[in-house]
Design goal:
mainly alpha; two-stranded antiparallel sheet; globular
């Protein structure tokens, strides 16, 4: 049974990685890395966690391709994700899955993991679809300074709505598999906090050229997971 699980766990993520490469959602290296990350999640925590990881990939791919030609005209399109995008969005979640299993702190890891995935999903949907908003974006730093479409840290009402939808989608998956309402709410708000952190970091250190987008994604997913773990520790762990 264990051998069958290992084989199945190996087959599914690599099959999905092949599909991602074939559909040009990811390049060859990022497809391979994504498949390895997916396999590590299955191996350490099981298919429930992997479903959330794949949901992010599926929703992100749809959002990226949504009205792609229009985004190309605006000069803000990104048709194919690279290895740095995969690592920036998924590394925190994979590390939480691995160390949560290796060092037996799964209760902490589960909140951090789903919040990290929720952050990545919220950010991808809000940026890829929110960028098509008919309203002029404003800076997240003061909510009034108008900025050019595609500017890091620019937000719109449509983008904010999609932030909630993206984070809520992952929270719903967590609720479906674990039947845990605190996990749902903490995942939801962890994703929102993480996505907002992404906008703030983009408007500050990324716009100044200090770091790139992938580093901002990594820091944002990290902040979302830390927020979620902090809430768990404060209200649910009992110390």
């Amino acid at each position: 049974m264990m051998t069958e699980l290992l084989i199945l766990g190996l087959t599914i993520p690599f099959a999905i990685g092949a599909i991602a490469y074939y559909t040009k959602a990811l390049d060859a290296k990022s497809s391979l890395v994504g498949a390895i990350m997916g396999y590590m999640i299955i191996l350490t925590q099981g298919f429930e966690w992997f479903i959330a990881f794949i949901a992010f990939f599926a929703l992100g791919s749809i959002a990226t391709k949504y009205r792609y030609k229009e985004k190309t005209e605006y000069g803000v399109s990104q048709k194919q994700r690279k290895i740095e995008n995969v690592l920036g969005n998924g590394l925190v979640a994979v590390l939480l899955a691995f160390f949560g299993s290796a060092y037996s702190f799964t209760p902490l890891a589960i909140y951090g993991f789903f919040a990290a995935i929720a952050t990545a999903t919220a950010d991808t949907l809000s940026s890829e679809i929110g960028i098509l908003s008919t309203n002029t974006p404003v800076s997240v730093l003061d909510f009034k300074t108008e900025v050019k479409r595609g500017t890091n840290g620019g937000i719109t009402n449509r983008g904010n709505m999609l932030m909630f939808i993206g984070s809520g989608s992952i929270a719903a998956i967590a609720l479906m598999f674990f039947n845990n309402w605190p996990l749902f709410w903490i995942t939801l708000w962890g994703g929102i906090i993480g996505c907002t952190s992404d906008s703030i970091l983009g408007a500050t250190i990324e716009n100044k050229g200090i770091v790139g987008n992938s580093t901002v994604n990594f820091l944002a997913t990290l902040s979302g997971s830390i927020f979620a773990i902090g809430l768990y520790q404060l209200f649910l762990s009992g110390f």
